[in-house]
Amino acid sequence: MTITGGFVRARRAAASLSIILTLGATLTGTAGTAAAQDARAKRAPAQGTGSTQAIAVQMKNAIALTRGGKFDAGYAQLLTALNAADKLDDAQFVMEQYFDATATLRAVKRDDLAEKLFVRAFQGKAAAQSPPGNADVLLMYAILISDHARIAEAVPLYMKAIAAFNAYWGEGSEESLIASDKLAVALSANGSAASATNIGRRNFERAEKALGPDHRTTWKLANNYADMLREIGAPAKALELDLFAIEKRAKHYGENHLNTLVTVNNAGQDFLNLGRFDDARRYFRRHRAIATVLAPKDPSFAGQADAWLFYTDMLAAGDAAMPQADLERLEAIVANEENFADFLRIKAAVLAAGRREQRGERDAGMRLRETALAISTRAFTAQHPLSFEIKLGIAVALIATDPNRAVQNFTALDREMFDWMKREVGTSGDRAVAEAIRAHADHLLFAFGRFATGAGSAVAQPAFAAAVLRWKTLGGGDATALRRLETQMAGKDEETAALLRAALRLNGEKQELFSSGNIDDWARSVWQRQDATEKALNKRLDAIGVKLPQDPIRPSQLLAPDEAVINYFITRQWKADRQSKQPLAATVLYAIVETATSEPRVIDLGDPGRMVDTGVRTEIARLRATQAAAPDRDAKTADDKAADNKALDSKGRFQNLRARLFAPLEPALKDKTTLYVVPDGFLFAVPFSLLPGADGGLLEDRYTIRMLTSPEALIAIHARETLDRTGAMLLAGGLEYSQPGPMPLPGTKAEIEAIAKLARARRAPVEMLTGRGVSEAVLREAIGKARIAHLATHGFYHDSTASGLDTLWQSGIVLSGAGDSRWPLRDDKDGYLYAFEVMDWDLSGLDLLVLSACETGRGDESFVSGLRGLPTALGIAGARRALLTLWPVADEGTANFTVRFYEHLAEGLTYSDALRQTRRDARDGKVAGARDASVWAAFVLFEG
Fold first, then answer.
1. What is the DSSP string of 476-521?
2. Are the C-beta atoms of residues 215 and 37 closer than 8 Å to each other?
3. How far is 259 from 266, CA to CA, in rounded Å?
4. Where is the segment annotated Disordered (predicted)?
5. Which 3 state secondary structure label does DSSP give 942?
6. How far apart are CA 782 and CA 122, in angstroms?
7. Count of C-beta atoms within a 10 Å radius of residue 107
8. Which of 715, 709, 731, 734 has its CA nearest to residue 857?
9. Quick one: angle between helices 71-86 and 91-107, nearest 10?
10. Higher pLDDT pick, 367 / 40
């Protein structure tokens, strides 16, 4: 909190991605001389000589003249003193004079002249000697540049300053931590929320370790880190830090101190943002009590406390009509720039706007919203979470008066937020921060979806459908363009196609690593490889005279007349406290149906939490807990009839799910035979093959249903979709695990031998891996040569909620030598291939990857990419298709089912049709051990 004058007021522009990504690296460096490394002591004033003493006096007089209003005379004396200093051999003294001179010019608002002196300072011989003063002057220079909307220029200066502080006084020193904090604050004010919070968190953690929890700089860093969290909408996390700082500051400074007042006010804001109004009032009253004592120093402190208390009362009143006097008082806060913080003025303007609109005074309400936006843009930037919230409020307000303008505003905000979000989530070092950032987009999409299916359905549906297409994976136009060009180049220019595939893989891996919070040496190595690949690709494209496609492409352009895409999308409206047990205020599931001949249709399917009723949840739980092991019999027996009854019961249980999930879409699908389904969230775990049809059979008896991991998979959906009869096949099964270790799977050896027999019959090259030799290294080398890879072993998936571990370390497959105990880490000898590890493999040469293992198709619901788990990792690695399972499956049933699948592939069926026919065979009793739905419905083919 800044008590007077609001937050930083200078206009700012968002930093470029290339600059911000550098913050993923550890902020270390050297000052350039060996002597600097030994200068660990606190800076001391230069030892005065006759010349230095005279210059110091001259500088003191120049500063007094300049600050006293005699600018011309003062500035002339500043230059005279600096000219004399530049001739000295005392480098530290010289840099101290430049520091004092530039600080003086900044104080009298002559930053133009201060900048000239900064440039001059680093052109002189003193700076070349790398004295400790370089760090201070560099930091001041960086602050000036960032205050003038030039953050991309400022970041390298901050980095040099931090490296100098690290070299002179140590990485955990107070000087170094404060310099890093200045960078974090500048980035936060410029809308670079992820990078700012990365640094803010690291600074606070280092301060606790290096300086201790009782050091005042540790409290300062906690306060500033809390500010950053509060700005991105993470008040619960901010509150923990503010309460820590209050305790320490009150004990050290006393209750009635400005520093205590600042943090008490911040905690009040945290409670306010969490909707805990009584707690907010308690802290704002405490603020006022401190302000009363401090009144002789600044009487405005009490007025600010009163304004916060009044705003709290008005907000707590909810939708109740606001008296005219209260409304006028709220608007007076908005107008009083001198006495009230910008954050309070913005909040007051938005609240007053809502009350004006409630009274039918829509023009007045819009003016208030525009005022709020002007304050936010000036104090922060147009690409800042606060500014986005205000712009969303403007778009929603326009729905009632001008739906066409509302669409324009929603669309403009969507594109602006998407570019910002892609950068921020892609550079976040904390998944909780990534999701806090994404929550702003969730609120936009929630309001946009309501608009598209309500008052603005006629004009907003195509725009909302286009927005969903972008947001589905955060891949956006870059990934789509890479995939489109790769499809065009494949088989024609393999050098270019290979670079395009590598760029796709590394882009996806980098984004996943950064958004998951794994900012370690591995993540940085991926970033470096991605950067090198991107440069190589650009060089190659320039050489052959080809450019990446820039025109947007919609699914309708990729569909045949008898095909349709069903793109499911969940929108969320969050409560203020996203860390609570029930953080969502509302969720809505939409189905966006696109065909080759019509505009996208957006269909509101309601609350997804109510879609899967108790019967369906019970049935899915049964399927996950069941391993059907009884083989089918040729004759009808009591057991056989029981199996039929169970299957019928499954249809009944899933009837309600079909009615809610699919029936509302049928009018748009009357003449369609192939459906491409893109799930979202929990729908990845729904066995679509079990959904009943309208005629008593199953839905997939009527349609060919193909599951896509993302809409852009349509670009290459028909490439290499039938078996390459001479393509190399890699088979792994009959693996030997450690003792104790996973349960042996004897049926997997027979499984791969049967598949090998089919492959050899068509004279396809086959490599078989079995026994104790199937390590990660062996498998990774072999899989790069194969067109089809079939791995028959154990798979695993664990919900990350209980452990707190990332899902990509909680899912994977088991290889040779695996034991009972394991700890997730990058180790190619531990027998466990985790999703985090396979994500870095190159699987782009595979037409099909079959994981004949348990629960390989599962993952955790994600607010970034829909699902996080092994399917995520395989898609990033480049596998075109992956046949996975949704729950544990019996050893015998799995083996027989997959062998039949390959038989149908050998007949010439596409991969999707072969799976569909194999399911039919299993249901008809033609696949031993696979008649029960717990076997045949477990398999799902994810494409793309």
1. HHHHHHHHHHHHHHTTT-HHHHHHHHHHHHHHHHHHHHHHTT--SH
2. no
3. 11
4. 627-647
5. strand
6. 56
7. 12
8. 709
9. 160
10. 367
HEC letters along 661-681: HCHHHHHHCCCCCEEEEECCH
**What does the alpha-carbon distance between residue 685 and residue 261 come to, in Å, rounded to a whole number?**
50
Give the pLDDT of residue 866.
Answer: 52
Q: At what angle do helices 403-427 and 457-471 cross, to 10 degrees?
A: 10
**Under 8 Å between Cβ of 166 and 27:** yes
Locus of tokens 């030799």: 773
- Measured CA to CA, the distance from residue 668 to residue 713 in angstroms comes to 22
The greatest distance separating any two alpha carbons of the chain, rounded to the nearest whole angstrom, comes to 112
Distance of alpha carbon 314 from alpha carbon 311, whole angstroms: 5
Tokens coding 240: 């923990």
d(CA 724, CA 788): 9
CA distance 448 to 105: 48
pLDDT at 436 over 70: yes
Which amino acid type is present at position 316? A
The listed range with the strongest mean pLDDT (11-20, 372-381, 628-637) is: 372-381
* 300 vs 933: CA distance, rounded Å: 72
Residue type, 462: P
Average pLDDT over every residue of 754-768: 91
For residue 337 the two structure tokens come to 């720039």
Reading the block at residue 599, the tokens are 């505009």
Please list the alpha-helical segments (H only) found in 812-941. Answer: 835-838, 870-877, 891-906, 911-923, 933-936
Nearest 5°: phi and psi at 562? -95, 15
User: What is each CA distance from 292 to 286, 301, 305, 558, in whole angstroms?
Assistant: 10, 8, 10, 69
Secondary structure (DSSP) of 251-268: HHH-SSSHHHHHHHHHHH
Q: In this structure, what token pair is assigned to residue 566?
A: 């069903």
C-alpha 274/C-alpha 911 separation (Å) is 50
Cβ-based neighbours of 443, under 8 Å, separated by 6 or more: 389, 392, 573, 574
Question: Is the CB of residue 714 less than 8 Å from the CB of residue 730?
Answer: no
DSSP string for 847-880: SEEEEESTTTT-EEEETTTEEEEHHHHHHHHT-S
Of 160, 27, 709, nearest to 429 (Cα)? 27
636: left (phi over 0), alpha (psi -120 to 50) or beta: beta
Q: How far is CA 401 from CA 300, 392, 396, 444, 931, in A?
A: 40, 15, 10, 19, 59
Q: Is residue 664 predicted with pLDDT exceeding 90?
A: yes
Cα separation values, 230 from 129, 188, 235, 386, 668, Å: 42, 11, 5, 10, 45
User: Per mean pLDDT, which range of 198-202, 320-324, 633-637 is the poorest?
Assistant: 633-637
Phi, psi (deg, nearest 5) at residue 69: 100, -10
**What is d(CA 745, CA 737) in angstroms, rounded to the nearest whole number?**
10
User: Do residues 860 and 812 touch, judged by C-beta distance below 8 A?
Assistant: no
Per the structure block, which two tokens stand in for 744? Answer: 């042996």
The residue type of 125 is K
Question: Model's pTM, two decimal places?
Answer: 0.83
**Cβ neighbours of 203 (radius 10 Å):** 26
Contacts of 565 (CB under 8 A, 6+ apart): 555, 559, 592, 593, 594, 595, 675, 676, 678, 711, 714
Nearest-5° Cα angle at 765, 764 to 767: 135
Phi, psi of 670 (to 5 degrees): -55, -45
User: Cα 32 from chain centroid?
Assistant: 37
Determine contact, residues 93/125, Cβ cutoff 8 Å.
no
pLDDT of residue 820 exceeding 80, the answer is no
User: Which residue bears the tokens 């002597």?
Assistant: 35
Token digits of residue 763:
């004279």
Q: How far is CA 303 from CA 250, 291, 292, in A?
A: 22, 9, 10
Q: Which backbone phi and psi does 249 adopt, to 5 degrees?
A: -70, -40
Strand ranges inside 301-372, DSSP E: none
Retrieve residue 57's tokens: 């006096």
